[in-house]
């Protein structure tokens, strides 16, 4: 362990597709989604300490017990009993908050992996996965990363073959969308329509095949963009700027586009960045991994 302790890097994700079923008795919706890890990272460091503490560089993120990092640490402590100790944790946020890119969930997965090692607990994959699913529906995905089909609440995963790196444009508006808000809009719109919210059954046993980088649909998109028209304008402008496909990620607010070549991506970043001046618009790519150790880039 270096003087600054142990560090994990926690990637963002986009949902390449998201089908939403009806609300279950436990309040969750049954979903079927394809998660894809993205080259945009939070970082989490830990040093041994008597107490469990967290410092976060983003004032918009709670650093108390409601932070998913501390919720993960407490879940791990409960599972490990006396073997677990304290830790001084430092979280550096780069993934947009409430952006539909799973930042909090990825940080939670990072905390499980990091503290499992710091505390020498020796928990294996299946142990961490069941703790991850307790913390949040998207958390197990980040232990795997790459590309995976998520079913149930999104926590039941099937790894899919990684089709190689794809170029992405990420557009983050100056507002977030809470997951709750997006599902409530979906439920309200469903009540007004004749759709019964059931999945198209023909697709149920039919996950994407190798090298298949299908994008869409996202069943939450219509409800979210109807209430935030700027998201739809951005998505349409992405189509006109050469994106092969564009979609709202998860519950939003991030909109992403897929590009086939880096020059077209650069031009689109410049064009959309000036037209949507209050947005963060930047290029990124898909990655084949999930949470991983190391990656000290000197920034602190
Ligand atoms: P998802 O796509 O998984 O539904 P999201 O990416 O839209 O989630 P997050 O940024 O993960 O949203 O977090 C949503 C809320 O969770 C925030 O508003 C924040 O108050 C809370 N939160 C708790 N822990 C964290 C964390 N480590 N990072 C970011 N937000 C956190």
Explain what you see:
- This protein has about 300 residues and is an alpha+beta fold.
- The chain has one domain: Ribosomal Protein S5, domain 2.
- The chain is about 30% helix and about 30% strand.
- The protein has helices spanning about 70-80, 105-120, 125-135, 140-145, 180-190, 220-225, 230-240, 260-275; strands at about 5-25, 30-50, 50-55, 85-90, 145-150, 155-160, 165-170, 245-250, 255-260, 280-285, 290-295.
- A hairpin with a 6-residue loop joins strand 8 (about 245-250) and strand 9 (about 255-260).
- Helix 1 runs parallel beside helix 2 (about 105-120), helix 2 crosses helix 3 and helix 6 crosses helix 7.
- The radius of gyration is 19 Å and the shape is globular.
- About 45% of the residues are buried.
- Bound molecules: adenosine-5'-triphosphate.
- Adenosine-5'-triphosphate binds near residues 67, 68, 99, 103 and 107.
- Adenosine-5'-triphosphate binds near residues 69 and 104.
């Amino acid at each position: 362990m270096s003087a600054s302790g142990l560090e994990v890097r926690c990637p963002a994700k986009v949902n390449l597709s998201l089908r939403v079923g009806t609300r279950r008795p436990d309040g969750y919706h049954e979903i079927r989604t394809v998660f894809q890890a993205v080259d945009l990272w939070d970082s989490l460091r830990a040093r041994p300490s008597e107490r469990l503490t967290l410092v976060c560089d983003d004032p918009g993120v709670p650093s108390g017990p409601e932070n998913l990092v501390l919720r993960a640490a407490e879940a791990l402590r409960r599972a490990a009993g006396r073997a677990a100790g304290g830790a001084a944790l430092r979280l550096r946020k780069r993934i947009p908050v409430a952006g539909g890119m799973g930042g909090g969930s990825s940080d939670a997965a990072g905390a499980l992996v990091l503290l499992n090692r710091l505390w020498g607990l020796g928990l294996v994959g299946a142990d961490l996965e069941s703790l991850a699913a307790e913390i949040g529906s998207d958390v197990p995905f980040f232990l795997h990363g790459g590309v995976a089909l998520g079913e149930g609440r999104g926590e039941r995963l099937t790894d899919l073959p990684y089709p190689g790196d794809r170029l992405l444009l990420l557009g983050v508006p100056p507002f977030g969308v809470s997951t709750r808000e997006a599902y409530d809009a979906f439920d309200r719109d469903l009540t007004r329509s004749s759709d019964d919210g059931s999945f198209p059954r023909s697709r149920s046993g039919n996950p994407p095949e190798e090298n298949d980088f299908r994008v869409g649909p996202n069943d939450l998109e219509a409800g979210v963009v109807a209430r935030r028209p700027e998201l739809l304008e951005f998505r349409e402008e992405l189509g006109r700027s050469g994106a092969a496909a564009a979609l709202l990620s998860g519950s939003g607010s991030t909109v992403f586009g897929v590009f086939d070549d880096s020059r077209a991506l650069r031009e689109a970043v410049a064009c959309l960045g000036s037209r949507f001046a209050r947005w963060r618009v930047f290029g990124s790519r898909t990655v084949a991994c999930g949470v991983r150790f190391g990656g000290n880039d000197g920034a602190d």
